[in-house]
Please model this.
Amino acid sequence: MKDLRIVFMGTPDFAVAILDALIEANHNIVGVITAPDKPAGRGRKINQSAVKQYAVKKGLTILQPTNLKDPDFILQLKNLQANLQVVVAFRMLPKQVWSLPELGTFNLHASLLPDYRGAAPINWSIINGDIKTGVTTFFINEDIDTGAIIKQESVSIEADMNAGVLHDKLMVLGSKVVLDTVRMIQKGNACPADQKDGTYRPAPKLNKLNCRIPWNLSKQEVYNHIRGLNPFPGAWTLLENGDHKIELKIYDSLMIDEPHTLKTGTLVVSKKNLRVAVADGFIEIKDLKMAGKRKMDAISLLNGYEFKSGCKFI
Model:
C-alpha cells in the first residue's frame, strides 16, 4: 500500500467537512489550496475562506493562488511532492495542476454524475423535484465534471427537504465516499469507469434570473423552486403593492390544494396567512425577507405591513 502525500483543494464549509474527515483518518495532508482572502460586507473586512480558517487552526501549509497557471504557484505545488490531490468545491483546474501527482487528482461532486454537471447540483436536484441524488468521486480531466467515475453513493430527497438540509446530508455522505475513494486508490484497486455520452440535466450557476419565482407554474413546481433555494441564495419575487414594487425573498412555503379563478400571482391576505394564487391552487408563504429588512415569518409581516387591494407577486 502506497504512502500518501495529499494536497487538498477547496473553499466552503462543505469542503471543510471532507478535509476534517481526511485528517481524522490520519491521512498526510501536505498542503491546502484555497481561494485568496477578499474584502466582504459593508466594512470591507478581509474574509478568509472556511477551508483557510480550518487549515490555519490545524497548522497546515496553505497556498492561495490568484492564477492557477502562475509558474510560482506551480513550483510551490511541485515542492509539496504530493502523489494525490483531492478537490472539493473549488475551481476548474488547468492540466498542469490536475495532471501533476502520480496517483491523479479526483473531485467530489454533489450529484449522481453525469446528471447535474455544473456549479449548483444540490439546488437543481430539488428545484427539478427529484426524489434521489447522491455524491460522486471522479478523476479530473480537461472538461468540467466529465472524468472517469471512481465511486458513487445515493440518498433520498424527502418531499419537504430544502437545499440546506440536503447540503448537510451530502456533506456527511461525501466525507465517507472520499475516504473510501482514497483507500481504494491507496490500495491500487480503484476501477474508474468512463461517463457515458448522452443528454443529462445540467446544474448551471445560480443567478438573478433563474432564482426568480415562476408563479405561472404548478404549485408543486413553485414549492420545489422555493425549497431548492432555501437557505441560499433564496428564491425572490417582486411585490406589486399599489404604486410600489418591492423585491423580497421567500424561504419557506406550503402547498394549498384549493381551486380558484384568480390570476396567477394574486395575493390573498388574511390576519393569519398570506397566500399566492398559482395555476392549480395556492402557495402559502411561511418565511420571507423584504429588501433591506430582516427575515421574518408571514404573521409578523401581516401584523405590520399594509397590503393594498389588488396586490400581487410578479
User: Anything to note?
Assistant: Residues 208-313 form a domain with the Methionyl-tRNA Fmet Formyltransferase; Chain A, domain 2 fold (CATH 3.10.25.10). The CA atoms of residues 115 and 200 lie 5 Å apart.
